[in-house]
C-alpha cells in the first residue's frame, strides 16, 4: 500500500472503516447454535466481518476498537441489525424459521430508543419478535443498572429474547 507523504495508516484505516459502514460493505457470517440433544440448528449468531479490499477479511478484533473510540457504535449496530433482519426475513420467506442473535455494544443498552428501533426493524420486515435475540456481555450489566433494566424490560415486553454472552 502506497501512502501519501505524511499520511497516517491509522487515519486511513479509520476513513476506510467509516466508508465501509456507510456503504454497507461489512459482511455478516452466521455461526449456528445447535441443540446438543437433537443436533438441530436452533438459531444463528451474526458475526460481523470486514472484507477489506487490500487486507482481506478482517475480524472484529481488527476494527471494533476504532468503532468504540470514534463514536461509530450506532451506525455499526444498525448495519448489523438491518443485515441480520434482512437475512432472517429471507429465510422466513423460504420457510426457514431460525432466530438470529446479534451482539449489542454495552453503551447502546442505555439508549431508551433501542426497543422501538428494534421493534420497527422487525415490523418493517414482517418478522415477529422471536426472530431476534439480542446478546449482551456480562460487563454490560455493571454500567448503568437502572437504565439498562428499563431498556431490557422494554425489549422483553416487546417479545425480544435477551441472552447473556461470555458469562463466567
Overview of this structure, please?
The protein is α/β, with parallel strands linked by helices. 39% of the residues lie in helices and 23% in strands. It contains five helices and six strands. Strands 1, 2, 3, 4, 5 and 6 form a six-stranded mixed beta sheet that branches. The model has no long low-confidence stretch (mean pLDDT 86).
Topology, pairings included?
Elements: H1 9-22, E1 27-34, E2 41-52, E3 56-58, H2 64-69, H3 73-93, E4 100-103, H4 114-124, E5 132-137, H5 145-157, E6 161-165
Parallel strand pairs: 2-4, 4-5, 5-6
Antiparallel strand pairs: 1-2, 2-3
Helix pairs in contact: 4-5
Task: Note the beta-strand portion.
Answer: 15-25%
Please state the CA-atom Rg, rounded to the nearest Å: 17 Å
The best one-word shape is globular
What can be said about the biggest beta sheet?
Answer: 6 strands, mixed
Low-confidence stretches: none
How far apart are the first and last residues' alpha carbons, in Å? 42 Å
Amino acid at each position: 500500500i502506497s501512502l501519501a507523504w505524511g499520511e497516517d495508516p491509522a487515519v486511513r484505516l479509520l476513513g476506510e472503516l467509516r466508508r465501509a459502514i456507510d456503504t454497507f460493505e461489512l459482511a455478516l457470517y452466521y455461526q449456528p447454535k445447535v441443540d446438543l440433544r437433537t443436533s438441530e440448528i436452533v438459531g444463528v449468531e451474526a458475526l460481523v466481518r470486514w472484507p477489506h479490499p487490500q487486507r482481506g477479511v478482517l475480524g472484529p478484533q481488527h476494527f471494533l476498537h476504532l468503532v468504540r473510540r470514534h463514536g461509530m457504535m450506532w451506525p455499526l449496530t444498525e448495519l448489523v441489525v438491518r443485515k441480520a433482519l434482512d437475512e432472517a426475513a429471507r429465510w422466513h420467506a423460504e420457510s426457514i424459521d431460525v432466530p438470529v442473535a446479534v451482539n449489542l455494544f454495552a453503551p447502546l443498552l442505555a439508549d431508551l430508543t433501542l426497543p422501538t428501533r428494534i421493534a420497527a426493524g422487525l415490523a418493517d420486515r414482517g418478522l415477529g419478535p422471536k426472530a431476534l435475540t439480542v446478546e449482551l456481555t456480562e460487563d454490560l450489566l455493571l454500567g448503568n443498572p437502572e437504565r439498562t433494566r428499563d431498556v431490557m424490560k422494554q425489549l422483553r415486553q416487546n417479545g425480544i429474547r435477551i441472552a447473556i454472552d461470555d458469562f463466567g
